[in-house]
Specification:
12 helices, alpha/beta, 324 residues, Rossmann fold, 11 strands, single chain, six-stranded mixed sheet, five-stranded parallel sheet
Amino acid sequence: MTNPRGAVTITDVANAAGVSASTVSYVITGKRTISPATRRRVEETIRTLGYRRRGGSPAPLAARAGVLAVAVALDSHPGAAMEFFAAAAGAARDLGFDLLLVTDDTGTAGLHRVTSAGLADAVIVLDAGDDDPRIPVLLASGRPAILVGRHRGPAAVPLDFAPAGQACATHLAGLGHRSIAHLTPSAGNRLRYLAGFRESVAHRGLEALSRPCGPEDVPRCLDELLPGPTALVVHDEAVLPVLLADLGRRGLRVPADVSVVAVCSATVATRQRSHPTAVVIPAPELGVRAVELAVHRLDGAGELEQEPVTPALVIGETTGPPAG
């Protein structure tokens, strides 16, 4: 039961969710790590009860800060993140807004500071997963939030990676590859890519494995994998130049000895000596769409369902038939 005086409190949320008030506070502020199951339960309760942090209602038009916050975790795709921010900044400027970049590793603490202080009228979250810990912070703030990468919803700019995963497997299978390794961090939209990749691999009867691999892990990963797979799919743009250099030191030619497909930004693709076959992340389009949707919601113009953005596979110089 909620507070009879009207405003929903943290205690109301805690009672309804079956947790302590401090747990609800930690979920909202990100000051402590909370299990995904508990976080989801608190998030759903916040949404159901309509809890808003004190002072968390959106500001009227006259009192707007004229700022949109963009939460970016600069992990495995910094090139894509910067392309996104640059395009978003241009779109925001055209609509009379400035951008505030929030770059905490998780985005939680930074978002809490920004929303608590009323520094931004709306928040855009890049690479938002379905169990993203930043979502309760946004729900409690009461400010419009745009989730970039979440699959569906009126506040989402969905990014559908599954067809790109299928296209990669289809391309490599068409060249004759039967053994493929997928090197990837395991988070967010990368999982949807992997689902499409695995579905297509299974359909074609190919041998494939997936292995987490950061830039510092490249020598070890290649030691463990090679010889073996005739094609590598690299789903971390920070890994791509390290991997290409390491293959060269081993005397392996790309694509004569091993093919490489990258998932990366256009910025990173164009910096490579050989233009890679790549799933190019459409970061500029996502940035523009996110800003337009944020302003649309601020203006109270109603719901606007977005069609998913689908990255395209661009054939380059790093894939070819397997050796032998």
